[in-house]
Amino acid sequence: MLNGNLKLAIQKSGRLTEKSIQLLRNCGLDIDNYSNRLIVSSRNFNLDLLFLRDDDIPEYVQDGVADIGIVGENVVIEKEAEVDIIQKLGFGKCKLMIAIPEDATMMNTEELSGTRIATSYPKILKNYLKNQKIDAKVITISGSVEIAPSLGIADSICDIVSTGNTLKLNKLKKFTSVFDSEAVLIGTKILDPGSEKYILLKNLILRIESSLNARTSKYLMMNVPKQSLERIEEILPSLKSPTILPLADESMLSVHAVIPSDTFWDIQNDLINAGASGLLLIPIENMLL
Ligand code: ATP
Ligand code: ZN
Hints:
Layout: E1 6-11, H1 17-26, E2 39-41, E3 47-52, H2 57-62, E4 68-72, H3 73-79, E5 84-88, E6 94-101, E7 116-119, H4 122-131, E8 137-140, H5 148-151, E9 156-161, H6 165-169, E10 172-181, E11 183-187, H7 196-215, E12 217-225, H8 229-235, E13 243-246, E14 252-260, H9 264-273, E15 277-283
Parallel strand pairs: 1-3, 1-4, 7-8, 7-9
Antiparallel strand pairs: 2-3, 4-11, 5-11, 6-9, 6-10, 12-14, 12-15, 13-14
């Protein structure tokens, strides 16, 4: 393990595993099949991947066993480890919510005062209750929190909710949102800025940023009559000014622009109405701004 490689801890097997590996592969890192291995090295980047339980990742990073880690923000905050969030990663999004029995008539969060709330996230919940000035009792349970109300050990729960199906099965309904989470890259400040590892980390962060930028952008190419150029430029929500190239037909231009992916369907009609034709929308693999 003491080979000078940057050590990145990721979840061994769970919701974040595949997407963490995918993110690294999108950054150009060659990573072998990782099933059932504790440590895997990248073939083309000085990086060792450590596969751990997600709950252990903040502490291992804090203690320097791993230099950096990918884990849910909910786990980072709950563990109160002394680590920095270097970057939000845009996947593993979920909400920590308070849910109450379907037949409960509670309307306002103040009504939670004097009740018992079961959760596996006592620190995040207590923080929320303190900020909201709600005086409720927090019951800490490590798993299957959603059955606590039917067992009579709590009046409501605070847990990660995505589709709400688990709530429905347990005759619970969403009440209020406590914390929005997504996967984050964490690290500590102990790396010496002159060190090899620091340089590796900067390089990796740049690659991650460029891959995240690329995911939310598309490259748009189209042909435009010269006299419509001004109108087309007004419609385009491009990140930088568009590239304009001449075409063999001198009355036409080729216009290329990087646009936020989700805007294409909103602007395509306007572009066509303004005279654009031959629209091509191309995915971008990496993008350095
Ligand atoms: P481990 O065995 O590593 O302890 P786990 O069972 O605690 O795994 P997972 O259920 O794999 O953890 O979830 C990992 C993280 O994925 C969560 O901490 C959270 O940040 C995120 N996540 C995203 N969507 C959901 C969801 N619908 N339910 C639970 N976690 C989710
Ligand atoms: Zn866990």
